[in-house]
Fold this protein.
Amino acid sequence: MPEASIASAREILTGLHEVMASRIGPQAKLNKVVKIVAEAMVSEVCSIYLLRDGVLELYATVGLNQSAVHVTKLANGEGLVGTIAKNVEVLNLAEAASHPEFAYRPETGEETFHSFAGVPIIRQERAVGVLAVQHAEPRAYDDLEIEALQTVAMVLSELIANAGLIDRRAKAGEADREAGMARIKGLKLVVGMARGTAVYHQPRILIEHTVAEDIEAERHRVYSAFRKMREQIDTMTTQAEFGTAGEHYEVLETYKMFAYDEGWSRRINESIDQGLTAEAAIERVRQRMKRRMAEIDDPLLAERMHDLDDLSNRLLRIVSGQLGTAAQAGLPHDAILIARNLGPAELLEYDRRKLKGVILQEGSLTAHVIIVARAMGVPVIGRVADARQAISEGDTVLIDGDEAVAFVRPTPAIEEAFNAKLEAGQKRRAAFAALRDVPPVTSDGTRITVMVNAGLRDDAAALGAVGADGIGLFRTEFQFLVSATLPRRESQQRLYRSVLDAADGKPVVFRTVDVGGDKQLPYLHGLEEGEENPALGWRALRLALDRSTLMRAQSRALLEAAAGRELHVMFPMISEPWEFDEAKRLVEEQRAWLAARGKKLPTAIRYGAMMEVPALAEALDILLPKIDFLSIGTNDLTQFLFAADRSNPKLAERYDWLSPAILRFLRRIVRACDEAEVAVGVCGEMGGRTLECMALIGIGLRRFSITPVAVGPIKAMIRSLNLAAATELMERMLERPPDNMRATLAEWAAKQNVSLS
Ligand code: PEP
Ligand code: MG
């Protein structure tokens, strides 16, 4: 930027600074601002319109008739000024009257002016007013002039906020209605319906001060913030699974590119030189880049813009010291959380009673955060890339998780339809609830075992509520994820005992800690060293065997909690049979220790293994004689079979569980277990889906552990299914697989009246 323009922008800001600091009233301040701008830009007209009760009112002007002040009003979207506010965009016109939206207002006397430039006055991404200049002669304004106007608009947003001139309706989110409803479609991750208020996981920073007192100090603040941000990004890139935020590799690469972009920091410094604070300068540059990119119609660039937006926000948070997530900031009672991605621990930080739904820019079906959300009963829609563009904080959002659709700022008609669907859903749930005490028996008389997956203390209550046969998978690591430090043996024991108490005699299968991969524990030393392939890395039993103190403590807690009762314990991610032996040895060692001290022991211990690593399927003849039961974890098993990361949003929809490869693989395992007379079940997400579960029954599975909300629909499916027919069907399907297994199975189910809701 040439020296001269920096000086003039600085001059304007110096003038504004004096106005802001003066003790005159808001109207007098606005009158002075228009004068300063008109003089600096040598324009015949400068005007400020502010949004009042949803209408843009001329608040101050030089050049237009003074009698029009507080008289001229334009609806949001009406005329040039209304268009600027509605679209939150800049207009730069050599001939204003030839613009299709031009609306002539005779009281202003503006007919003598040809050229027009207007910029929105923005507060939290919404226009709360418009600043415009006009010249008599037809001329286009250059970039520097537009940018000077935007800088003034930024300061004006502070001025009008301080003066209490922000429109009440804009504050209450009512102006949203004028912004119109948006319908967004994503990927179905957790079903269910929710209504609430949008909250950003990483809240937007509200800029309080725009004009710098001390330019050197502001420069220094930005310098330190950049350094800190670069450090953060470097750490994230080297961390396994990219730290708690779970950001995706490509995103981080882009982050890195922007973070080290000298042009970006230079432009921010130039804005500071003009007299803006660090926060205002970052925001100014963000708006400018946004405008530039909006002019280029390229979807790839638009995606980069989201990244830059995220990064600008990160820089703002660092510079302003507002570092917490919305979980710490206090939620409204009906929050719909908007995030790029979340780690399971981050989600668990939120108050379950207030969190109604989640919309992610990324996300995939079997990522642990989704499993946690499912356990919490929170509907989630994923892969809404432009979520932060389409949804503003404070917007009303309706989530229809069943259709993976969200309505932002819904119209009354949509609200009505949504409520009707909600009611129908409640009726359906009530019908499923009626199945609570009805056993899941196929129409030809085979009893199927339906248990639930759990992991949180309150989950055990779901057992009775849905009428399941027990807890088939208790993910003990959830307690580790919600804790800031390693949970002590006593607190582990207390949790296990309360779960056994709540299960009231029904079996509970405790899975020993399964951390690592996308379940990171910041306090567990060793995990923080980055791994290139965390899913294939030092995780689950591999880690637990190496850290045997952790495993010993957990074993003791389990044995003590189950004293006088039967204990079911299961080990995750077994790749070779010796790992099972070793894990069992550790538990037995603790049993002996307790026995030697005359402590009360469990009446029996049943040992199980998880089948998640394909290699284990080739060693079943060695493993099966050692174990009491096998539980197939289809989430991990399928990611390894397809070599497709379960957390990678790009692969979320690529492979289908209903594929010959998966089903044939599972059938082999089931046959081996049947032959060895070892109980076998499925505890991955696959078993909780009606069509998938139907296919699994058809290949011989009789035990399932599923998410509690799926128990009703799965029971209904089982009760409407003829086992003999399903078995015959799957034989046929796997003999000569159809092109589209899913469609063929769904068609068959429809003909047979199998309930798939
Ligand atoms: C699985 O992998 O299928 C499983 C049930 O375990 P988790 O989802 O906890 O990895
Ligand atoms: Mg697993």
The chain is about 45% helix and 15% strand. The two ends are 62 Å apart (CA to CA). The CA atoms of residues 656 and 742 lie 8 Å apart. Residues 215-238 form the longest helix (24 residues).
